[in-house]
Design brief:
By secondary structure, the protein is of the alpha/beta class. The protein is built from seven helices and 18 strands. A hairpin with a 2-residue loop joins β14 and β15. It is elongated. It starts with a strand and ends with a strand. About 40% of the residues are buried.
Length: about 300
């Protein structure tokens, strides 16, 4: 089949690579425009744009799938559109333009966690499992019939970045299988069942850790917002990013929520239940450092983390 692929971030790259290596023809990759990256704000191609160019696939840069993009896709006459984390909506007439419409690889078990940040919200909620679904794209948000899905058990220490890496690879295999089935005419899709939940895009405020919660809830949020938008707290009124954190050792002393202390030369912070060990932090205006080194430099008798 003749395919048009739409995707932007790194988790979309394994799907592009697998489809490009298949017997199908990837006519073009639609991706968002080059964006400023780093302190110097250097314009940088998206991971999908970079990989598509390496694979000698035409790249269509567009922040919205507007009339111009629609015209470019129409000229390609694709049989199927495939979308993986593009970052924009596919509307009519583009939605119905390919002979088989569009399919979407989504990193959740639909209808759970429809929306922009399904993996992050699954971790924040403390879900024990998640997965990936391939569904027929429709006008409603992630509401189309599902062709197939895979279930993925969430490891206790997985961050959103690590879980996305795993799902990107297993999801690409799932996606390629569904594309093959559509080409053979054997694909079947079933309506979604169950109560939908929604995963809105995370903002900086979503990374704020609340020490008055249980240690499990604090760590769930930490894992869900790592690496982006990033976990943070305030220590004696100053903002500090939390880059690595985990359950404190069983012999760690109980602390009031937000109280910071050294235990066996490691930093621990009290929660509503057991304390959490913080290994790597990044104070404002500085680079990442061992939490113990940062703590010793505070030179304060009382160190308190704010919510």
């Amino acid at each position: 089949m003749r395919l048009v692929f739409a995707g932007t971030p790194e988790p979309a790259v394994p799907s592009l690579e697998l489809l490009a290596a298949s017997h199908h023809e990837v006519l073009a990759a639609i991706t968002r425009r080059d964006a400023p990256v780093g302190r110097k704000r250097v314009l940088t191609p998206s991971p999908v744009a970079r990989r598509a160019e390496e694979l000698e696939i035409e790249v269509i840069r567009a922040d919205r799938l507007d009339a111009d993009t629609t015209a470019q896709v129409e000229a390609l006459a694709p049989d199927l559109g495939v979308i993986v984390a593009y970052g924009g909506l596919v509307r009519e007439p583009l939605l119905s333009m390919p002979r088989h419409g569009w399919i979407n690889l989504h990193f959740s078990l639909l209808p759970k966690w429809r929306g922009a940040a399904p993996v992050q919200h699954a971790l924040i909620a403390g879900d024990p499992v998640t997965g990936a679904s391939v569904f027929q794209l429709v006008a409603g948000l992630d509401a189309g019939d599902v062709y197939d899905e895979i279930v993925h058990e969430i490891k206790p220490d997985s961050t959103a970045g690590e879980l996305l890496e795993d799902l990107a690879v297993s999801g690409a295999t799932l996606l390629a299988r569904v594309v093959d089935e559509i080409a053979r005419g054997t694909a079947t899709a079933q309506p979604q069942t169950g109560e939908p939940s929604y995963a809105s895009k995370l903002e900086d405020i979503d990374g704020q850790l609340t020490w008055a919660q249980s240690s499990d809830r604090v760590l769930d949020r930490f894992r869900g917002v790592t690496p982006a938008p990033g976990a943070h707290t305030t220590i004696n009124g100053a903002r500090v990013k939390v880059l690595e954190a985990r359950t404190a050792p069983a012999d760690a002393p109980s602390l009031p929520p937000g109280q910071v202390a050294l235990h066996h030369k490691e930093v621990i912070i009290g929660t509503a239940t057991a304390p959490i060990q913080v290994d790597i932090v990044q104070p404002a205006g500085k680079g990442p450092m061992r939490a113990a080194d940062w703590f010793r430099g505070l030179r304060s008798e009382t160190v308190v983390a704010g919510s």
